[in-house]
Amino acid sequence: MSSTDSATALSKDFASLGLSDSLLSALKDVGYEQPSPIQEQSIPLLLQGESILGVAQTGTGKTAAFALPLLERLDPKIQSPQIIVLAPTRELAIQVAEAFKSYSRYLPDFTVLPIYGGQDMRGQLRSLKRGVQVIVGTPGRVLDHLQRKSLDLSQIRAVVLDEADEMLRMGFIDDVEEILSNAPGECQYALFSATMPPAIKRVAEKYLKGAKEVRIAAKTSTVERISQHVLMVDNSHKLDALTRVLEVENFEGMIIFVRTKSATTELAEKLQARGYAAEALNGDQTQKIREQTIDRLKKGRLDIVVATDVAARGLDVERIGLVLNYDIPYDTEAYVHRIGRTGRAGREGKAILFAAPKERRLLRAIESATKQPLTPYEAPSAEKISEQRIQQFQENLHRTLDGQDLDSMKKVVLDFCKENELALEDVAAALAFRLQVEQPLFPILKDLPKLDKDFRGRDRDRDGRGRNPRDRDRRGREGREGRDSRRDDGIPRERYRIEVGRSHDVSPGDIVGAIANEANIESKYIGHIAIYDNFSTVELPEGMPKEVLQHLQKVRIRQQLINMKPDAGKPERKPRSGSGRGGPRPSSKRPRS
Prior knowledge:
It comes from Hahella chejuensis (strain KCTC 2396). It is built from 20 helices and 23 strands. The chain is α/β, with parallel strands linked by helices. It folds into 4 domains: about 5-215, P-loop containing nucleotide triphosphate hydrolases (Rossmann fold); about 225-375, Rossmann fold (3-Layer(aba) Sandwich), CATH 3.40.50.300; about 380-435, no CATH class; about 480-585, Alpha-Beta Plaits (2-Layer Sandwich). The strands form 5 sheets. It has an 8-stranded parallel beta sheet, with helices on both faces. A 7-stranded parallel beta sheet has the order 11-12-10-13-14-9-15, with helices on both faces.
């Protein structure tokens, strides 16, 4: 394999890479100006029909690196799968599918379909029957469709393996190889991986013969004067978390970044309704309106701007002391550009990032790119907000006492106390109460859900030394045959029963994929799985939240509603011989307790 070095690559624009006007227009709409190193190197090679082996971290812009050139090579007349992208998780599959949709907005009759476990199979079957040009899916579900013969790979022109090392870690490597063996021999391949473990090298040597290697080193750094923080919060609690942050953070001006134009307007309106001087800034606005908004921010007539990446390009306002990433960017370069809006003119800056547990991988990529840690940020409690409001209340009283002639007001209050035989402090308390009705000094707030703040520990064992490579290789070899039952990681687990088993042709990989995707449980926390004729059991961490269990009850695996419940029985662990796809599995007979 030949290799190119990003350090020697010259800076280009997307037009110089050979992309069509349709794709360039779409890139302009989403705000892309210059290609990242991985895009600059990969796009010309893929346009020429070459296969590539990309070694690059998450957040380097690799989705555009393969999606744009492969869209150029698409035949619009063929309404059957021509590109297939394999991704390790449901979230990444959806993200990649959305990117294809954004880039193809000016291509006629383009269709893309994300397919993953836990999703209704009937909807996928209908979409495949109608015809789609690009498939983005998790290995287990793609293999399901191949075995059902509902997915035809005969017209496939390109296969992409995105985050191949993550698919290996999750035990999908055997599935991946089986899918690759079904692709036409003359296919173009693109494999992207942050690392190159032996199993990935073996796949590359087998299927990517003659591929060009593109290796990107993370070199992005950020402003040293900016302190960076991350608050782990679910999407449904973001607005509540934001209003609490605004209560306790001291800033002159602020930018809140969201992903979409519509979100800028929606969030700005919600903040205005809560009494904040906030405005939206997005690409749908005229240049005059955007300039007026920025001018108001500069002059202090506006405190908060809710913006997209595109609208905030080049924005330079000294009084911006806080940048809040309401939506995490999928590109580390975008993150660096965002937080660079603060810490200007030698000032100290602060950046806060909202992230959900499923976005841990992106957080690690940001830390790697900026070479600075993300400090955990605690959502302000009701007590903290009360302290802040009391302090502001007292400061307002001081300003009033220092700046106003209060003699006439004193007479009114003293006369009122005398006539009604009231103590002065009682009347003062009553007046204070009336003043704080709209913003109570002692607010009653529900606690936000506690989420795991350790986003760096995913790739470490319980001793902090990193995963055992032999365990990783063993999982890769086992593939769809089963999971190691000898869990000794100190995590207490409970056993659950699911109503899908050997008769439904289920495999451990199906169960792991569905639970990991639907419940946001990392696969390393999923314990022993036993598959019986008509049901299976799976061990999960103790104390599963009620809402998560309720959601899992509605999940389908192999078109079967799993109806997950705590397992009260004691199934026999002794395996019996069998010829099913999963190899020998335990008997379905179980004693009653």
